[in-house]
Amino acid sequence: MKYVVVTGGVVSGLGKGITISSIGRLLKAAGLSVTAIKIDPYLNVDAGTMSPFEHGETFVLEDGGETDLDCGNYERFLDVTLTRDHNVTTGKIYSKVIANERRGDYLGKTVQVVPHITDEIQAWIERVAAISVDGTEGPPDVCLVEVGGTVGDIESSVFLEALRQFQFHCNPGDFCLVHVSLVPCLGSVGEQKTKPTQHGVKELRGLGLSPDLLICRSSSELLGPTREKLGIFCHVPPTHVISVHDVNNIYHVPLLLLDQKVDRLVLSRLGLDAGSSVGVAMRSWEVMAHAVDAFQETVTIAVVGKYTGLQDSYLSVFKALKHSSIEARRRLELSWVDSATLVDDSDASPAAAEAWATLKSADGVVVPGGFGSRGIEGMIAAITYSRINRKPYLGICLGMQLMAVEYARAKLPGKEHITSAEFDDNKANQVAVVFMPEIDKSTMGGTMRLGSRETLVSADDAWSRRGERPIASIIYAGKPSVKERHRHRYEVNPDLVPDLEAAGLRFVGKDSTGKRMEILELPRSVHPYFVGTQFHPEFKSRPQNPSPPFWGLILAAIGNFDDHFKLNAKKPKVIL
């Protein structure tokens, strides 16, 4: 097994995840199979209980693992399917060691950070690296390992010590260390400053790790003298000092690395055949990256949620919209609307007026998932506006549940104040959304309905017999069932479904029991695109292979839904 380890220095948020994903993309283009491991030095067992405001979105894996958003970057860029074990946290490692100690596995020895914690980290990496992630037999060729945080953090020190030991555990030529650092350019001086990177590498070397490549983040391309200086003081050849400067879109990052022969440098360090076909294999990716810059027409989507203050909270939603807009050859413009400001159309406050103007000017609307009661009435107001004004709309998880609440309030007699049990658990007041009976209320972490589940997509109901084929059946190409990822504790009240269907709402996707609602929509004769999914389709969207519900939304938003699917029956979709 070959390992490429990525560490970070100076500041966090430099894009280690995109860097390691881009390296992996080049290695895949070289014909290698790759996997990825993310090390998060926090004490949480996983990211499931962490606030989106603090940590960004929780990315859900196929097996239900709740992880850092970087795992989403790996899956999208590398087109692999990871497991919960591909995300290593301090909490997981210490829990495992303590469990071993309680069983007496250490035979009475004093359990210490070194060697027991560091040994467990190494064993975990080695075990998970061998898991096949892309359907091939046997272990992948290369494992990419990202260490979260920055060098010098107390939290990550034990992982860096484990990796120091691990480099000697590996065979010579099986370990490549890539360090990502910041090279700022101070406006008052206009000079690229190397001192922060020098200090970061000095700290890293003091821990017993010496980088093979330096990935330098900067606003502009690294100058020749800057590369030379970093090479001298950081003990790497200048050709191994790589410039990753600001680009128009992240799809250019693998191309930047390719232009600087990073694929050959990494392959050479690992003793693998560099070949000469990587550039050819990356051709379609290059066409896509440059095409994104050239789009003239735009599509504007309003994302109405409660975590809009930190856009990473909806990173996968943004990526899914981006993948679909690229496929539609449109430049995506996202409008973030804080649902707490979107309460009443008659509200004359400046914040409310701006929110409503943003919503009304958008070509389409998305209400994503979330938890808690704050901003709920604003989301319902956005749903009402979208339904009445026939604006293309996609509701995800909570956004789908609120569609049922909104429709019941509008169409069912005596249900004007109906809500979700999440916000009002008064059993005397019938609710449109209920707590799932199998969910454990006593704990928060890992107790939701998580991971990949099958949804049966109906192609035959009363509306279908009138010639109204379900939208879900159209966008999923007539598949009788689909597997998508879930993360929720509440579901549409099955007792209310008959009344909602009688009033015109269409439940076209259900679980295998037929009792749990997965997809709802309005017929296309009533609304061009009014779709809700209990699952999170954004987690499986990929560049050049967009998620069907998001793809349908973008097509409807640009007025091309009918034309596309009529043409699709005659010839395959053109991939950029």
Automatic annotation (TrEMBL):
<dbReference type="InterPro" id="IPR017456">
    <property type="entry name" value="CTP_synthase_N"/>
</dbReference>
<dbReference type="Pfam" id="PF00117">
    <property type="entry name" value="GATase"/>
</dbReference>
<comment type="similarity">
    <text>Belongs to the CTP synthase family.</text>
</comment>
<keyword id="KW-0547">Nucleotide-binding</keyword>
<comment type="function">
    <text>Catalyzes the ATP-dependent amination of UTP to CTP with either L-glutamine or ammonia as the source of nitrogen.</text>
</comment>
<comment type="pathway">
    <text>Pyrimidine metabolism; CTP biosynthesis via de novo pathway; CTP from UDP: step 2/2.</text>
</comment>
<dbReference type="InterPro" id="IPR004468">
    <property type="entry name" value="CTP_synthase"/>
</dbReference>
<dbReference type="InterPro" id="IPR033828">
    <property type="entry name" value="GATase1_CTP_Synthase"/>
</dbReference>
<dbReference type="GO" id="GO:0044210">
    <property type="term" value="P:'de novo' CTP biosynthetic process"/>
</dbReference>
<dbReference type="GO" id="GO:0005524">
    <property type="term" value="F:ATP binding"/>
</dbReference>
<keyword id="KW-0665">Pyrimidine biosynthesis</keyword>
<keyword id="KW-0436">Ligase</keyword>
<dbReference type="GO" id="GO:0003883">
    <property type="term" value="F:CTP synthase activity"/>
</dbReference>
<feature type="domain" description="CTP synthase N-terminal">
    <location>
        <begin position="2"/>
        <end position="272"/>
    </location>
</feature>
<dbReference type="GO" id="GO:0042802">
    <property type="term" value="F:identical protein binding"/>
</dbReference>
<keyword id="KW-0067">ATP-binding</keyword>
<keyword id="KW-0315">Glutamine amidotransferase</keyword>
<dbReference type="InterPro" id="IPR017926">
    <property type="entry name" value="GATASE"/>
</dbReference>
<dbReference type="Pfam" id="PF06418">
    <property type="entry name" value="CTP_synth_N"/>
</dbReference>
<feature type="domain" description="Glutamine amidotransferase">
    <location>
        <begin position="310"/>
        <end position="554"/>
    </location>
</feature>
<protein>
    <recommendedName>
        <fullName>CTP synthase</fullName>
        <ecNumber>6.3.4.2</ecNumber>
    </recommendedName>
</protein>
<dbReference type="GO" id="GO:0019856">
    <property type="term" value="P:pyrimidine nucleobase biosynthetic process"/>
</dbReference>
<dbReference type="InterPro" id="IPR027417">
    <property type="entry name" value="P-loop_NTPase"/>
</dbReference>
<dbReference type="InterPro" id="IPR029062">
    <property type="entry name" value="Class_I_gatase-like"/>
</dbReference>
